[in-house]
Design a protein that fits this description.
It is built from 13 helices and 13 strands. The chain is of the alpha/beta class.
Length: 367
């Protein structure tokens, strides 16, 4: 069986690594990995290097299509990515495509496969993120997919609602939990050697993306968020991971670079990679921003999370998560609460760390 796995950014490759390992170990499966989107784009950290350093060689690496990140630039990149994949699916023989998530590049790649009749297994369907265009893209990929592997039971139920059928819809759990269960996470000394930050002092792990349904408020959001950071900079070190290739993501990167130049308490990193990122998550005091990792991966430890704004609205909110608007005082109030409250214990809804083998079994059922 020929299986083609798609990766469009750092956001999905690290998550998919356990599945790639399982598929590659199966003699009945021939795996191809197509790296596209922002992976080969130096503006987003050349994350193609993370793929090659993992020991996995992509079968195809496509050049980036994003010229600029305004609304027109995103729409143009979607069209150009679809054109890229029209040629790929014409020339690439495959029995199954594996697509994770909700990004516009992933939507374009899967849309281009639709006329060819190539079946798609969709990972992380059924989730809701009302503050981003990703929500519509994710549900669209769900409707184009043949089989579905969701990260939690409520998401499986939503896919059934969307498609009108429970056939080939499976709650496999989240691959991120596989990563956390199997990885030998780095200690504080090893992290300091990698990125120069000492997490033995109270440190905040920050990922702050644009709200792609509220781009007109980006200046106000930025000012409110960074004003809160300046207020707590005397109490916490900060590790900032830069935003992805979203609408106005490059604009936000420019703002981050200017902020970091005048913020000795904060260190910015283009991309930490899965191992360092999850290790920082383990040792940080809390997470702050609007990353989906504050929902899935953070539930494993569990780690306190302050999720700001509407980007992730609609996801399952576990007891370790505090939600607040992108408002300086609201963020400071949340920091005060998180800094003094014990993290509640609870059962993570995202599975037992064996998602990869379950997903592989779903894929093989189509052989």
């Amino acid at each position: 069986m020929r299986v083609t796995v798609l990766t469009s950014s750092r956001a999905d490759f690290g998550i998919q690594l356990p599945l790639l390992r399982v598929l590659e170990s199966d003699p009945a499966i021939t795996v191809g990995l197509i790296a596209f989107g922002s992976h080969a784009d130096p503006r987003f950290g050349n994350t193609i290097d993370e793929i090659t350093s993992s020991g996995i060689k992509p079968s195809i690496v496509l050049p980036p299509m994003l010229a600029n990140d305004d609304h027109s630039g995103i729409a143009t990149a979607m069209g150009r990515t679809m054109e890229q994949f029209a040629s790929v699916w014409r020339d690439q023989r495959t029995d199954m495509i594996v697509a994770l998530g909700d990004r516009y590049e992933m939507f374009a790649a899967v849309s281009a496969a639709l006329p060819f009749g190539i079946p798609v297994t969709h990972l992380h369907g059924g989730e809701t993120t009302l503050g981003a265009i990703d929500n519509a893209l994710r549900h669209s990929i769900t409707h184009m997919a043949r089989s579905h592997c969701t990260a939690a039971e409520p998401y499986r139920q939503r896919v059934v609602q969307l498609t009108g059928s429970a056939l080939h819809v499976h709650d496999t759990g989240a691959l991120s939990i596989d990563n956390l269960r199997s990885m030998d996470l780095l200690g504080i000394d090893a992290i300091r050697e990698r990125i120069g930050v000492d997490l033995s002092t109270p440190t905040v792990l920050i990922t702050f993306h644009p709200e792609t349904f509220a781009t007109g408020q980006r200046e106000a959001h930025w000012e409110a968020f960074t004003m809160a950071l300046r207020h707590i900079g005397d109490r916490y070190r900060m590790v900032v991971t830069m935003p992805n290739a979203d609408t106005h993501g490059l604009w936000l990167r420019e703002r981050w670079n200017a902020f970091l130049a005048g913020a000795p308490f904060a260190t910015g990193v283009d991309s930490l990679g899965a191992l360092v990122y999850l290790s920082c998550m383990k040792h940080c005091a809390f997470m702050l921003g609007n990353s989906s990792s504050g929902y899935v991966e953070a539930s494993y430890f569990p780690k306190p999370v302050i999720d700001v704004g509407e980007r992730q609205t609609g996801r399952l909110v576990t007891p370790n998560i505090t939600r607040c608007p992108i408002d300086t005082q609201a963020i400071l109030d949340a920091v005060s609460v998180v800094g003094t409250r014990a993290v509640p214990t609870f059962m993570s809804p995202y599975g037992d760390g064996h998602a990869a083998s379950r997903i592989a079994a779903v894929i093989k059922s189509f052989a």
